[in-house]
Amino acid sequence: ANIMERRQEARNPFYRVVTLTDTTTDPAIWGKNFPQQYDAYLRTVDQVRTRYGGSEALPRTPTNADPRSIVAQSRLEEDPRLRDFWSGYAFSQDFREERGHAYMLSDQEFTQRQQFAQQPGTCLNCHASMYATYMRLGGGDLTRGFEAVNKMPYQEARQHVTHSVSCVDCHNPETMALRITRPAFMEGIRAVKATQGVPNFDVNRDATRQEMRTFVCGQCHVEYYFKGPEKRLTYPWSKGLTADSILAYYDVDGHNDWKHAISGAQVLKAQHPEFEMYSQGVHARSGVACADCHMPYQRVGAMKISEHHVRSPLLSIDRSCQTCHKFPEDELRARVETIQDRTFELRNIALDAVLELTRNIGAAAASDSTSPRLADARKAQRYSQFLVDFVEAENSMGFHAPQEAARVLGHAIDIARKGQNSLHGVVGAAPVALPGVGATRSRPASSGAGAAERK
Amino acid sequence: ANIMERRQEARNPFYRVVTLTDTTTDPAIWGKNFPQQYDAYLRTVDQVRTRYGGSEALPRTPTNADPRSIVAQSRLEEDPRLRDFWSGYAFSQDFREERGHAYMLSDQEFTQRQQFAQQPGTCLNCHASMYATYMRLGGGDLTRGFEAVNKMPYQEARQHVTHSVSCVDCHNPETMALRITRPAFMEGIRAVKATQGVPNFDVNRDATRQEMRTFVCGQCHVEYYFKGPEKRLTYPWSKGLTADSILAYYDVDGHNDWKHAISGAQVLKAQHPEFEMYSQGVHARSGVACADCHMPYQRVGAMKISEHHVRSPLLSIDRSCQTCHKFPEDELRARVETIQDRTFELRNIALDAVLELTRNIGAAAASDSTSPRLADARKAQRYSQFLVDFVEAENSMGFHAPQEAARVLGHAIDIARKGQNSLHGVVGAAPVALPGVGATRSRPASSGAGAAERK
Amino acid sequence: MPLTRLQRASIAAALAVGLAAGLGVFTFGYAKGASYLTNDPAACANCHIMSEHFAAWQKGSHQAATCNDCHTPHNFVGKYVVKARNGFWHSFYFTTGRYPDPLRITERNRRVTEEACRYCHQPIVDAIEPELAGNRDQPADVAQAGMSLALANTGAHGDATMSCIRCHKYVGHFVR
Ligand SMILES: [Ca+2]
Ligand SMILES: [Ca+2]
Hints:
The complex is a heterotrimer, with two copies of chain A (455 residues) and one copy of chain C (176 residues).
Chain A: H1 3-6, H2 27-33, H3 35-42, E1 58-59, E2 70-71, H4 75-78, H5 81-85, H6 104-110, H7 113-116, H8 131-137, H9 142-151, H10 154-158, H11 167-170, H12 183-195, H13 203-206, H14 209-218, E3 225-227, E4 232-234, H15 243-253, E5 258-259, E6 266-267, H16 274-278, H17 282-285, H18 290-294, E7 297-300, E8 303-306, H19 317-320, H20 329-367, H21 374-393, H22 402-423
Antiparallel strand pairs in A: 1-2, 3-4, 5-6, 7-8
Helix pairs in contact in A: 2-3, 8-9, 20-21, 20-22, 21-22
Chain C: H1 5-30, H2 41-44, H3 51-59, H4 67-71, H5 76-96, H6 107-125, H7 130-133
Helix pairs in contact in C: 1-5
């Protein structure tokens, strides 16, 4: 075709068959206007495994309590050390590889973790289409609706939702522009921007389009906790986004997730800090967004659209990576796996270190529960356990920020093993402290003659 | 310069004023044919500091024993922990930041390390223009000349050389093509290639031009030891180029550099493993050579020539980095410094761990020199000390392979602290072993249903 | 009577402009600066410092597009204004030797190039353009990419279009 013939005026490529509003939660209706995006969205049911990602489809016999006929593989069976790691907490009962968005609501509803403790409605924030529900229950005030759902017991809140995350949660129905619909993220990102010298950040007013292509995912793929009796969903970011800053935040806040069953330490569970880890990497620094890799453009007929089959980019290397990196597919996969293998190797020795400490504390407490050494050792467990979990729970196995993941694990190893030393009264042992506290983090500028020349 | 000249330059790049041969060691003579390269080569006398690299020019009063009027800053004064780290070895007496090639011969001749022990002629391999000397002393056989110099005492060998590394060491005088002139590298790289399934690699016959742009540097910027009574310069690469493989090599070989003065452990000194570390990084994987960054092309008139002022690329970011990375200079510098700061942070906690262990062993040996626990703890020191030194001695502070440097330090921390545990008889403590031995280094392939689909 | 500072500055400036114009005109003729007025990519390579781009263009996917297709606006007047401006300054810098190494596209010319992508490829990117995302009339004020850390655009997220060369930076001249 002659390029001149192909040249046309910009036009809206979609036919508006139905009118969409803020209360249209059913994605099938949006699909009438945007059939390609909808079809791809439906394909998030696919399960394909990569070395560290994707997921495996394992058949099971449905029961009344859990009607799912297919689940993802159990991470506890893959690595039984995790049962001890989370001993005493719901995660030691059931923890599976995460899979596509289509499953988010049922996987949450039917995880055995629900049997372990009464969960709050807050859980739903990241596992269902919430926008219309929040607006309805808040009488038009999103935040009030959010607060209302948080306070309900899970089962009650569950009655108010129907779909997994849906079009309305990410898009303005009139313009199709991206929007943030989760108050916890609005508050969290405002705190982050404040640490960077940007006051009063209103994400829906101030974010760039490229930022939005990351922020919509950052609403859920983040570390969180339930604050206070209102069970308010809170992102612990006011000191920054690194593992160290978040740990320091919890230390001041005093929050604990549970008391470890083997050691009695007050510990924390880290959960899917993809946005936080990604933010430390060179892709974030280069302005590459989550959607660039996880929703790459795809040619459909005469146009290209964003691939709404959100999944591991290793299943679409050509479109996810190769426009920016002109290397063969196998080479790019090998780069990712090299990074992941290194992370996995360190994660394993770090996990062993924390578990040894945990068992040492258990044994020490059993023989003398009043030993003054227990407190420091338990603090070491609290810190190191969180740092290991930060990398373990982050779902890219280090790819999103390879050196940072290794740095965090290096601290975890150091603190866990220092805890063992201090428990055993090793002379001259360094005190247990938050990672990097007291350490020199950058070479001091020179004081000598050449300093002036420094460029 | 005007445009007429520029057009000419494009046609006739060099004027061959003099005839160069294999015995022309004086760079000034080569400089008659290639004045731009020669002028730049002379500028390696410049001393400018970057945060972690370059060097500082410190004036000193020349003495008869050491006539240098300017030296680089002392790394021992910058970080006095290093004196204990190398206690009992020459490096604890004098260790300075390295500087430009112009100084290599005098810095070696006058370092106080020369007072500490009688050094062999082998040292000169990397500190002088050796090609003509080797050929002369070997009667036309490079390797025989190399062996002859190795066996001489340093002072005797010193009489046979005049210049720092010179044109003839890197270039064929007739074609100006790069060539390898160091037998130790020829042997070392052959062993490396064999581990990669390439037998009988003859570097001057088989290497690509792009490889040569790295290999010429890899002749000197590598870890080495003097093997046997012949003091043969040897690169410990037959198990591979990673820190772990080199440590495993030494373990089989049984080589020790010295007995640590505080702990009595038989330890190793790692030295400038730039080539080895670089080989683990994404730049090496992408085919980027040392010369691409350290000798970037420079436009001189109509030609592009290689900048022979070899130095820190942070002093020429535009030409060294921006050809490939279209980010502003300050941003690129910040990326490098972020990587270096993370490495430095981990290096510091790893150094502390090794030093604590060292002192613990010293104290334990003082109270009971027959304790059966000493052997394991000393082994832990040997391993962890080498791993820390591998990153410490590598001169890019992690930049050449950020995640790999952090991985090596993670192992160092683990092993050092395990050594403390085993010295103090901690129950259930993991045995001290080479890094990663027994650890799972990659996730095993799935055994479940989804595995077949793995792509 | 001594010249005032202002007078001295004016004279210097006048001389500089004259010299610049002289050099520019000189080069424009001698160095085939007029090649700026043709559409032949080989003409751009008349200046040796363009020759790498020329070689890389020949290896790339866009032989269907000339240098000018990507580096000048797609309307008659704009095209010759930009050609004249670039032709003059490039000749001037080339002759004086005062240009950055490596070459870097200027902000203004980057915008021109971003518009050029759309000139040929508008239909295929209709779905990802802000007509849809924002339903607003926005000039194709193009994203900051590569050269600047500012993310794809400034202001509220509906305001601007995607930068094409953020992902497709190799299309014009294949280099790695
Ligand atoms: Ca998964
Ligand atoms: Ca230096």
